[in-house]
Structures are given as C-alpha cells and as structure tokens.
Amino acid sequence: MSAVFDRDPFRIRLRDVFMRRTDWSGADLIEADLSGSDLSHASLAGANLESAKLDGTILRGADLTDAQNLTVEQLRGAILDAETKLPAYIDGSLLSLAAAE
Description:
Elements: E1 2-5, E2 12-15, H1 72-76
Antiparallel strand pairs: 1-2
Protein name: Pentapeptide repeat-containing protein
InterPro entries: 5peptide_repeat, Pentapeptide-BTB/POZ_domain
Pfam families: Pentapeptide (PF00805)
C-alpha cells in the first residue's frame, strides 16, 4: 500500500490501495492518483474526479452517479463491470466492461 497525502490538498496519491466499499461521496479528488487501487463497490457519487488518474483502478460495482468532471478517457483505463453506476453524461457503450468475478 502506498498512500501519500501531499501538503497540496488537491494532489492525493492513493496508488494500489484496497478501498473496497468505502464512501468517497462528494469528495474532492481533483488530480488524485488512484491508479491500481481497488474501489469495488465504493461510493464516489458526486465526487469531483477532474484529471484523476484511474489507470488500472478497479471500479466493479462502484457508484459514480453524479460524479463531476469524469471523462470516458479516464474510465477507459479503469476496470468496470455491468454493476458500475456511471454518471448520466457518460455513454457506457463506449467502455469495455470486465467479466464478473
């Protein structure tokens, strides 16, 4: 696990961290590095994910409803499944979904 909180509150590195079923609703995750972390079934509803790094982030069953500033490009690097709840402005047909575990 490598969690580092920089002095700048907008730059959080939570790489390769196990965060299943955690609640990040409404969190300010601008430029956060969540690469390789497991956020399965976590709530990121309403979180601001502007420029967040999601390469290899596991978002199976995660709730991303009303997430702000999230892009298809960010999600293409993440691992999603049919249970992942996307914001209304994201077209899920543009993404590949992982097979159920």
